[in-house]
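Researcher: Let's continue the batch. This sequence belongs to Endoribonuclease L-PSP/chorismate mutase-like protein, and it's 147 residues. Same format as the previous ones, please.
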Amino acid sequence: MSTFKYHSLSGFGEQCRDKYGFSDSCIIGDRMIVTGQTGIDPLTLKTSPIFEEEVTQAFQNINDLILLTLKKEGRTIDEGKTGWDYVVKLHAYLVDLSTMRDQARETMMRHIKRFCPNHQPLFTMVGVESLPFSEHRIELEVDIWLK
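Model: Same format as before. Here are the structure tokens for Endoribonuclease L-PSP/chorismate mutase-like protein:
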């Protein structure tokens, strides 16, 4: 049995942990591993039908999860920093990317600039056939360096 502590966001994250047996994040040394976060509102369990809003919620979920994990692990969060300030790489998985390539690229660039105004994380965007929950069109994963 590992001694790692695993964490999940309230609401949807906890439901997934309890029902499917997976967590949202874990810290290993100076690295945080964050699994895919979608654009679902974790408390209302609703996903906006508007792509821009879904992407915004996914970015917010990543931020909230990073800060929650740091807090639960007793890590100091530098004053004025957001969770995104720790992100070094962003992976985006989008359903039907080939039909919305320009919109998706522009939307992602706007969000990266908004959530990472002081650095430019590495970024990969991949089109996928589907995600595990049919109402989700985007899933984000991030790699985080805590040094």
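Researcher: Any comment?
Model: The chain has three helices and six strands.
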